[in-house]
Amino acid sequence: MSGENSMEGSVAEAMKRELQLLSPAARSSRALAEQLLDPEFVEVGASGRRWDRPSMLAALPDMQGVADDGPQYVPTEMTGTLLGPGLVHLTFETVIDGRRARRSSIWRKQDEEAGWRMYYHQATPVPDA
Fold it and tell me: What distance in Å separates the CA atoms of residue 73 and residue 3, rounded to the nearest whole number?
C-alpha cells in the first residue's frame, strides 16, 4: 500500500484535517466544518459538555479560535495511530489564551468521496502547575 491508504498516509491526512479544523478558516466556515465533521460526530469538550454535529456546527462560529486577529489554538506533540482500516486516533495538546488542554480525536474514512472526517473528539483541561 502507498499514499493515503498506507498507515503513514492515513495518519498524515487525519493530522492535516485536524490542523485545518483548528484554523480560523474552518472554524468560521460552516461549509468547511461540515466537510470535516463526520455525520455521527460527538465531542466531550473541556467543559464536560457533550456536543453532537448539529450543536457543534451551530456554535463553532462563536467559539474561540475563529478570528484571524484573536486567540488561536496552538497544537503541540501531535501523534497518530492507525487503529484499523479507515480509523485513525490522534493525540495532542493545545494552548489558547493561556489555557492548555490534552486532546484526543478519532478520524473515520468511510469512502473516498467524504474522505477523513472527525468522528469523536475529547478535550481535557490541564491544570496549572
Answer: 28
